[in-house]
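Appendix B, example 12.
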Amino acid sequence: MSKSALIEVARAKGEAAQYTLWATLRDGSGTVRDARQAKRVAENRAVESSPIGTALRAGRRFAAAISALPAADRGRLSEVEAIVARLVSILDERLEGT
């Protein structure tokens, strides 16, 4: 394993991510590029499983669903507007609390 690959293992965030990366690269067939890609995947998984990651995924899905609404559903947009207003209110509360 190259020195650069070992550095990527050491830089991985968290012991679990380091171990996973080490297991991927220890046979010597992995490259630094492979190490960096595996590290990004492991770190993204950690972020996506956090509460903020869950909220971000839900927000992205909500935005995509609103963008895809057919014109026939416009009658219920006031309900969507109320949900958005509530989300903005919650976000404001969280931002003020930090």
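The radius of gyration is 21 Å. The chain has two domains: 3-48, 55-96.
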